[in-house]
């Protein structure tokens, strides 16, 4: 990995007789999707920078089961959940940060009744608390200063779990020209990937959901759209591409923005 | 005396018929699966007061919210007037509550303005619905009966309010003339202007006053019994429906307990598989849904805020959350008629899935919760969609092929894509 950051696994720490204060749940997209991998690495950079004792599960991590559950396969979801809970409980994990609102929602809300009780936060909440504690501060003359930035609410962060403020507070520290999408916060429009749509072709219709959404973004005249979900990233990036706006609109995760602004 | 008897018969029939229909609806809702929504009563009461009584979610759209508030407040408060009409009708008195003196004048004064507010709002609603091009008033599910239903409700409310105001106008004229039986009572800030339009003959005025009085009360009785077959039940059910709302985060879907038992025994052979009756996984028909889903269906007033916010619908897909609710209600009514006719439900070779809701609709949902968020009375179409998906997947193994591929990747590799679990942390070394 660049900058020679070593990402420890929980098993590795355990071998040294140690345990992490925070488990970083990478998620499937964060592990395998090339675009999302960059976000994963940026989250590691942030964790490393502020000196949190964290670890990942590495090859012991498995899908939370979210796409199976939303698609109606409760068996598969609960199998995944119980296997993950076995591993998490075996390592006595107390606190988890996720890079994906879908993992976040599932771990936080759907694991407890199956025996998995953890304090689960999304990476935007972590970054916001680090800013509040003064551990992260945008560098002087950060690249986002004065830039027109908008934010797309991921459904499973916003509506599903009422996390609207954390990502916005992070953007507010950038001294940028922030603008809301016409459909934002609880009225936000889905990117089109949720409910296992990511893994199938859309049903016949007039247009794709991500096109409808990217039109909202274009309307704001923002040169950067921030989000906080690997699936939203894919959908927004595709939308930008189809609308041939690549030269005008950048799509970045809040974690990437934080790393750039803090020059980590 | 004759009119008192007629009034009594009408009142009795209206209440009897309404309670009969209400019991049928209650029976139908009870066909749903059990679900505990009796926890945290304080929180529930607060939610009901905010969302149903206070109409909090309506104010996402300010203009319809204000117009609706006029109709709602008017409707609730003018019902005090109904009390007087019922007493007058039963005992042959006239404006019995005028014994309250100046407070009565204040009441009538307020009723008049409210009635005007209701009337004007309903006219605007009618124009919005029929003449303006508003997205949520279109849609394939809003043709035929649902469209007629909506317009009938608006027209009835306009006529009832008009009758109330003309009744007062005639009464006011008669009071001015000192006609026998029409003592001075009430204040008529609106209808005094209408009285100028009326003829001067006392007999004609009495006829108009009586006609409007009867028209108003018969209209109200008829409307009461129209409720159970119309979308307008929300005026009653909005209250229990918001009280019994889901209090958990919107993203939290219920874990099916019968699946938990099976999965536990699959993962740990020392745990015996659950015995007894094999439950159906997911929902094929209305009785597989929870009673709250069914209450939702009866509460829906087809406003379409859900559909107008649905990412699938606004991009031209077949899915409409409003249609999901209307289909659920239509099927439930059909099942109810079947039970009324046969004593118990007789298999009719129909089901909510396929006979009413197609697979194409089900699979277009992104589970984004926009419909749930928008509903002013906390209806949850998403639970029904997921319930039907669960049936399609777990009972029938019928999902789009790419979804099945995702399932098998998940099962074999622990990820929805075809990557090996052993490669999961490779990104860290890149």
Layout of helices and strands:
The complex is a heterodimer of chains A (264) and B (430).
Chain A: H1 10-15, E1 22-25, H2 27-32, H3 34-50, E2 54-55, H4 66-70, H5 74-90, E3 95-98, H6 101-110, E4 119-122, H7 123-132, E5 148-151, H8 165-172, E6 177-179, H9 209-220, E7 224-227, H10 230-242, E8 250-253, H11 254-261
Parallel strand pairs in A: 1-2, 1-3, 3-4, 5-6, 5-7, 7-8
Helix pairs in contact in A: 3-11, 7-8, 9-10
Chain B: H1 2-29, H2 41-53, H3 62-91, H4 102-130, H5 144-177, H6 191-195, H7 202-226, H8 234-243, H9 257-267, H10 291-299, H11 305-309, H12 311-314, H13 321-342, H14 352-356, H15 359-363, H16 370-374, H17 381-395, H18 401-413
Helix pairs in contact in B: 1-3, 1-7, 1-13, 2-8, 3-4, 4-5, 5-7, 8-10, 10-13, 13-17
Can you describe what's shown?
The complex is a heterodimer of chains A (264) and B (430). By secondary structure, chain A is of the alpha/beta class. Chain A folds into two domains: 2-128, 3-Layer(aba) Sandwich (Rossmann fold); 139-261, Rossmann fold (3-Layer(aba) Sandwich), CATH 3.40.50. Chain A is built from eleven helices and eight strands. A four-stranded parallel sheet of chain A has the order 2-1-3-4. A four-stranded parallel sheet of chain A has the order 6-5-7-8, sandwiched between helices. The radius of gyration of chain A is 18 Å and the shape is globular. Chain B has 430 residues and is mainly α. Chain B folds into two domains: 2-30 and 61-234; 257-413, Fumarate Reductase Iron-sulfur Protein, Chain B, domain 2. Chain B has 18 helices and no strands. In chain B, helix 1 packs across helix 3 (62-91), helix 3 (62-91) packs across helix 4 (102-130) and helix 10 packs across helix 13. The longest helix of chain B is centred in the middle third of the chain and has 34 residues, at 144-177. Chains A and B meet through helix 2, helix 3, helix 4, helix 5 and helix 6 of A and helix 9, helix 12, helix 16, helix 17 and helix 18 of B.
């Amino acid at each position: 990995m660049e900058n020679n950051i070593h990402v420890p696994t929980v098993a590795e720490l355990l071998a040294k007789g140690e345990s992490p204060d925070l488990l970083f749940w990478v998620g499937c997209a964060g592990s395998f999707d090339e675009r999302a991998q960059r976000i994963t690495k940026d989250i590691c950079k942030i964790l490393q920078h502020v000196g949190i004792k964290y670890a990942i599960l590495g090859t012991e991590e498995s899908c939370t089961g979210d796409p199976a559950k939303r698609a109606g396969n409760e068996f598969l979801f609960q199998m995944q959940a119980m296997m993950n809970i076995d591993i998490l409980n075996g390592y006595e994990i107390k606190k988890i940060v996720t890079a994906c609102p879908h993992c976040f929602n599932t771990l936080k809300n759907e694991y407890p009744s199956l025996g998995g009780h953890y304090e689960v936060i999304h990476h935007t909440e972590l970054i916001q608390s680090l800013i509040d504690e003064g551990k992260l501060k945008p560098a002087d003359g950060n690249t986002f200063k004065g830039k027109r930035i908008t934010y797309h609410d991921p459904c499973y962060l916003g509506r599903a779990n009422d996390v609207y403020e954390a990502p916005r507070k992070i953007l507010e520290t950038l001294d940028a020209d922030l603008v809301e999408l016409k459909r934002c916060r609880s009225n936000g429009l889905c990117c089109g990937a949720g409910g296992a749509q990511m893994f199938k072709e859309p049903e016949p219709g007039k247009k794709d959901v991500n096109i409808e959404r990217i039109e909202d973004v274009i309307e704001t005249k923002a040169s950067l759209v921030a989000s906080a979900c690997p699936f939203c990233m894919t959908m927004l990036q595709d939308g930008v591409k189809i609308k041939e706006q690549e030269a005008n609109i950048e799509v970045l995760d809040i974690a990437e923005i934080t790393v750039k602004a803090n020059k980590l | 005396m004759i009119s008192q008897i007629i009034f009594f018969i009408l009142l009795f029939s209206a209440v009897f018929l309404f309670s009969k229909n209400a019991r049928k609806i209650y029976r139908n809702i009870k066909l749903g699966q059990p679900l505990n929504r009796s926890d945290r009563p304080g929180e529930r009461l607060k939610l009901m007061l905010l969302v149903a009584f206070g109409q909090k979610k309506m104010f996402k759209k300010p203009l319809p919210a204000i117009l609706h508030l006029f109709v709602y407040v008017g409707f609730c408060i003018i019902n005090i007037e109904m009390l007087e009409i019922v007493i007058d009708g039963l005992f042959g008195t006239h404006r019995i509550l005028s014994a309250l003196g100046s407070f009565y004048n204040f009441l009538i004064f307020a009723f008049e303005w409210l009635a005007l507010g209701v009337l004007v709002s309903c006219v605007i609603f009618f124009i919005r619905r029929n003449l303006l091009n508003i997205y949520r008033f279109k849609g394939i599910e809003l043709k035929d009966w649902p469209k007629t239903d909506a317009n009938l409700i608006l027209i009835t409310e306009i006529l009832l309010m008009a009758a109330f105001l003309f009744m007062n106008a005639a009464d006011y004229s008669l009071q001015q003339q000192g006609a026998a039986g029409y003592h001075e009572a009430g204040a008529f800030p609106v209808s005094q202007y209408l009285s100028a339009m009326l003829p001067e003959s006392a007999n004609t005025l009495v006829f108009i006053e009586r006609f409007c009085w009867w028209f108003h009360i018969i209209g109200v009785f008829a409307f009461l019994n129209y409720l159970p077959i119309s979308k307008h039940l929300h005026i009653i059910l909005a209250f229990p429906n918001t009280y019994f709302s889901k209090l958990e985060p919107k993203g939290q879907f219920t874990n099916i307990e019968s699946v938990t038992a099976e999965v536990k025994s699959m993962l740990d052979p020392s745990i015996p598989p659950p015995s007894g009756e094999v439950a159906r996984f997911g929902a094929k028909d209305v009785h597989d849904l929870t009673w709250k889903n069914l209450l939702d269906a009866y509460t829906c007033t087809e406003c379409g805020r859900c559909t107008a916010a649905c990412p699938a619908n606004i991009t031209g897909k077949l899915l409409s959350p409003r249609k999901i609710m209307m289909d659920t209600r239509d099927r439930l009514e059909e099942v109810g008629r079947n039970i009324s006719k046969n004593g118990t439900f007789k298999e009719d070779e129909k089901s909510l899935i396929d006979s009413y809701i197609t697979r194409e609709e089900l699979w277009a949902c992104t589970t984004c919760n926009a419909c749930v968020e928008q509903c002013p009375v906390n209806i949850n179409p998403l639970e029904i969609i997921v319930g039907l998906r669960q049936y399609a997947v777990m009972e029938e193994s019928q999902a789009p092929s790419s979804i099945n591929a995702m399932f098998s990747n998940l099962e074999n590799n622990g990820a929805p894509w075809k990557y090996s679990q052993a490669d999961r942390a490779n990104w860290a070394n890149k």
